[in-house]
Amino acid sequence: MKNLFYFLSSFIIFILCTGCSKTNDRNGSVTTKVYDFNVLLVPDLSNRINPEIHPKPVLDTFLLNTAIDSIGDLLTVNNRRMNQLDVYKFDFINRGILNNPQIADAKWLQINFRQFKGKTKDASNFKRYEMKSAISAFKKNISKVYQYSFENPAGSDVWNYFNQTITSSLINDPDVSLPNGKNTLIKSTKNVVVLFTDGYIESTNSSAGYNFDQQSIKKIRQDFISSKSVDLQKFIQSKPEYLIKKTTNNLKNVNILVLEMVDRSLDDNGSTTVQPTDFEIMKIIWTQWLKSSGAAHVEIYPAFSKRIDAYDAIKKFMEEISKN
């Protein structure tokens, strides 16, 4: 009976999901792909979160809270109407913080709809009666994490997060195919990493190719200017010594949205002081690194000026990767 109910519910999605990926074959049958999302909110909790050291227009917590408050809207990305099995989870680059349960309780650092698989009524009741309090607890625990990290600053090994730590947070379940006559509905999951970082990588591995700091950026800029090249991307990609080593962990099922890179080559008024800018160099280096590591889709943004900007970027990113 549960399988029948799940099939009927999924068929309704097939009818309603006008924004989902569809393909037609020569026999007139239609294959519709419906995506659930596993969204990992991953902040670099190094001293970049200290506004006295690295001031920026909007604090991480404001951006995160706005995105989390909008989970109900994200559930409807691409006109999804029901049976969404999304996960919205705060993930740690350094998971040592979870060793202290008084600082962070992992069960309250996520909203997980996979618990309602085959339980449409329970999912509906949660959205109607419980999600507001769950979101409130989510934001409260994030605030505790940031307060602890502010008082106990530590490095943030982003390279190792993508190479190893992230693995247990990914969802790589096989697609579920639900045929209906000539037509087929396929349910699949997209892993989305929303990384908040200033763009500098401090790996515990001090070997060349695992770290990316301000000195690296300055050297690339100086070498580019001296070379009299006109294409920054081609210049950087032609110099393997500039590049970050790809991860041994293949990121083929991971879509990565990098937010809040801070361009320190701008003055207090936001005007460019040097060319090419820090952000231009960081964007090329990071994109090359993540793409070479197998990432399915990569987008990178500089620091935002409004708290709604992070939500808008996440929604746009989810819509974009749903087209594939």
Strand content: 15-25%
**Mean pLDDT across every amino acid position:** 89
Characterize the overall form: globular
Contiguous low-pLDDT stretches (5 residues minimum) are 1-16
Number of helices: 9
Number of strands: 8
Biggest sheet overview: 8 strands, mixed
For the terminal residues, how far apart are their CA atoms?
Answer: 33 Å
The level of helicity is 25-40%
Whole-number radius of gyration?
A: 21 Å
SSE string, helices as H and strands as E = HEEHHEEHHEEHHEHEH
| Total number of domains | 1
The computed structural class is alpha/beta
Structure, described:
The chain is built from 9 helices and 8 strands. A hairpin with a 5-residue loop joins β1 and β2. Strands 1, 2, 3, 4, 5, 6, 7 and 8 form an 8-stranded mixed beta sheet that branches. Helices cover 36% and strands 18% of the residues. α2 packs antiparallel against α4 and α2 crosses α9. 33% of the residues are buried. The chain has one domain. The two termini are 33 Å apart. It has 324 residues and is of the alpha/beta class.
